[in-house]
Amino acid sequence: MSWSAHVLTLYPEMFPGPLGVSLAGRALAEGIWSLDTVQIRDFATDKHRSVDDTPAGGGAGMVMRADVLARAVDQVLERRPEAPVLAMTPRGRPLDQALVRELAAGPGVSILCGRFEGMDERLLEARPILPVSIGDYVLSGGEVAAIALLDACVRLLPGVMGAASSGEEESFETGLLEYPHYTRPYEWEGRTIPEVLRSGDHARIAAWRHERALADTRSRRPDLVERHGDARRPPPSDARRED
Ligand code: 6GU
Known about the structure:
The strands form three sheets. The chain has a five-stranded parallel β-sheet with strand order 2-1-6-5-8, with helices on both faces. A three-stranded mixed β-sheet has the order 3-4-7. α3 packs across α5 (142-154) and α7 packs across α8 (222-232). β9 and β10 (191-192) form a beta hairpin. The protein is α/β, with parallel strands linked by helices. It is 35% helix and 19% strand. It is built from eight helices and ten strands. 6-chloroguanine binds next to β5, β8 and α5. 6-chloroguanine is lined by residues 88-90, 92, 114, 132-135, 137-139, 141-142, 145.
């Protein structure tokens, strides 16, 4: 069975959206992965088909109801019991390439897209759901985040990108940003391509790329350099534990 995505949303018309074109779109048409949307509103039971209500304790906006969301999640858990269920929310675990790799290696994902101020927290306690965020900023809903997550997973599926996506030099695969790229023309607006890249000396090129990856990561993402360093150094002795 192909890698399958189920997206639970109030806006199914946002899908496949960008996932219907280019690499992901071709892979979708080829059956390498599948995408199904589930309209959350179909699980409302009152005559107004309401999916949200005012926040307990007061405050702005509306909160998605646990009972309605649970019926939608339970249906998708029945249809695809092996697929992990994610909830897109700025309160979630930050998405990174390690999680993307793990999800892409599995059977697929079911994704609950939040809207309004958020979801009733009891749902996230009562069902096996992993809250995931795509960064420290607030989107108007989880759909755009779900599209980003799916794009990152799909490009890693066998047969989607070939050699490029399995490349160990991509940003984050080494724990660092990738080195910069150049192509013709050799001179553009008075700027030339670094000489070393035209030397044909593959060892020198590899060393230069590693240095640039490190330097650029240091200046743009000092947080990554710290983690990269940690991964290669043994933990301090007082951090070791006997289990
Ligand atoms: Cl997953 N959802 C929303 N609404 N905003 C976000 C996000 C998710 N990740 C970052 N901001």
